[in-house]
Write a structure and sequence with these properties.
By secondary structure, the chain is α/β, with parallel strands linked by helices. About 30% of the residues lie in helices and about 25% in strands. Bound molecules: NADPH dihydro-nicotinamide-adenine-dinucleotide phosphate.
């Protein structure tokens, strides 16, 4: 009889947890996974996937509008939030089913309930069953940060935004990061009057300054009200409307307030009293380079470790971990040069160092272009395409690439490959352009 019930017990069936389960099972290990909510985690159920569907839904008004410039004469289009919600939920259900099927066909034992740490080699389920495992993996992800002001409970979070009963007329979004900017774009596209309140000088702190400036200009041009240096102090509910008081001694009335002020590691009710794990100040589970916690048999991957909170990163964390635990090779996840996108309109694609970060350590040369695309010339689209390369003077190596414009997310995925291979500016110079495209600009910058 085996010493433990399972070789690996995973808490959390999101992108990272499910990948780890399948990979370990493929290597012949006995694996179990527990999920208290739905399979697929934030990405599939209330993050990337439904968000991207909303991005698509909100893109049509622009297409209809711009079609006019190309001779299309369309009747007034209308949007049904209900119909869209049904389609979106249908797709999410389908994907969740696929996740479930993948686990079952991989012979992973699935527990559809909450699991807590019980001791260093066992967990306890909601129904009080205790299960032992050689290794325990925490892959519980993250959750929205709550707005800690009076009336903060009247706001919704990115978890709730997909389940709005109807499309509001007015929406205030608090925050200036990925989620705030993406939903500002989405609801603006769907015809909602959007106000974005950001506590700093300019949205998207941490991104390259040219991205920040160009996105701000574009969002404002589309009719989004952006109030910088602005933070909420009190929220009241008044006659089916919400009243939001801000630091500038004024207040705004709105239908819905979306709080997008960041996410935090999901560690509530995880049984942390039963096991000693080192945590960071914000609750992130501290791990070493091989994703091992301060308790030898317990590992953690993905957003709960608050390293780089992106779905593809959690998936790669899982791959590295399974190689370490059950493969022939100890592997640490590679978090360097991770390309990422913000699905605003226009999109952002970015990889590597910002100009500011690069200047701290290198002498750099900046190559930059700002232009109107051919496609937008005969429409009323005022968005500019911005492309920027941060190049090391000494080595000619490209340290950072930053793009604002339609298709930026697709472009940056491809550029990420070149960056990983150590692309130099001279390599771009020697690459022939594909004409007429937006991406050709990246190989013709001088
Ligand atoms: P971010 O950390 O990106 O942004 C949080 C924003 O809220 C910042 O602008 C921050 O301001 C502001 N803020 C923080 N606390 C307060 C407060 N108390 N009052 C007012 N404003 C506040 O978090 P998000 O929630 O946007 O996204 C979470 C993570 O999810 C991201 O880091 C990203 O990794 C991931 N994500 C990725 C996406 C993608 O890949 N496309 C899409 C969505 C999310 P300040 O700048 O001053 O700190």
């Amino acid at each position: 009889m085996a010493e433990y019930d399972f070789d690996l017990f995973i808490i959390g069936a999101g992108s990272g947890g499910v990948r780890a389960a399948r990979l370990a099972s493929k290597l012949g290990k006995k694996v179990a996974i527990a999920e208290e909510y739905r399979f697929g985690g934030t990405c599939v159920i209330r993050g990337c996937v439904p968000k991207k569907l909303m991005v698509f839904a909100s893109s049509y008004p622009k297409i209809f509008k711009e079609g006019k410039g190309y001779g299309w004469d369309q009747k007034k289009a209308s949007f049904s939030w209900n119909k869209f919600s049904k389609s979106m939920n249908f797709e999410i259900d389908r994907l969740e089913e696929i996740y479930n099927d993948l686990l079952i066909s991989s012979h992973v034992k699935v527990f559809r309930q909450k699991a807590k740490l019980y001791n260093s080699n066992s967990v306890i389920l909601d129904d009080k069953t205790k299960i032992t495992a050689k290794y325990i993996l925490i892959a519980t992800g993250g959750e929205p940060q709550k707005l800690e002001i009076e009336g903060g409970n009247l706001t919704i979070s990115s978890n709730d935004v997909f389940n709005l009963p109807s499309l509001p007329k007015k929406m205030i979004i608090i925050g200036g990061g990925y989620i705030a900017c993406e939903f500002a774009s989405i609801f603006n596209g769907l015809g909602v009057e959007v106000t974005l309140l950001y506590r700093g000088d300019r949205i998207l702190r941490g991104f390259d300054d040219d991205i920040r400036e160009n996105i701000e200009v574009s969002l404002i041009q589309k009719g989004i009200n952006i109030s910088n240096n602005c933070f909420p102090t009190l929220i009241r509910s008044n006659n089916k409307k919400l009243e939001l008081f801000i630091n500038k001694n004024s207040h705004l009335k709105t239908d819905v307030i979306l709080s997008a002020i960041g996410r935090k590691p999901k560690i509530t009710n995880l049984g942390l009293d039963n096991v000693s794990l080192d945590l960071a100040k914000n609750g992130a589970i501290k791990v070493n380079e091989f994703q091992q916690t301060s308790t030898k048999s317990i590992y953690a991957i993905g957003d709960v470790t608050d390293r780089l909170n992106l779905t593809p990163v959690a998936i790669r964390d899982a791959k590295a971990l399974i190689s370490t635990l059950f493969g022939n090779k100890k592997q640490s996840p590679d978090h360097k040069l991770v390309p990422t996108a913000i699905f605003t309109k226009p999109e952002v694609g970015t990889v590597g160092l910002t100009e500011k970060e690069a200047r701290n350590n290198f002498e750099v040369k900046i190559y930059k272009t700002l232009f109107s695309s051919l496609g937008s010339r005969i429409t009323n689209n005022k968005d500019k395409i911005m492309m920027k390369l941060v190049v090391c003077n000494k080595t000619d190596k490209i340290l950072g690439c930053h793009i604002v414009g339609d298709g930026a997310s697709e472009m940056i995925q491809m550029f990420g490959i070149s960056m990983k291979m150590g692309v130099k500016k001279k390599d771009l110079d020697s690459t022939c352009a594909v004409h007429p495209t937006l991406s050709e600009e990246i190989v013709t910058l001088s």
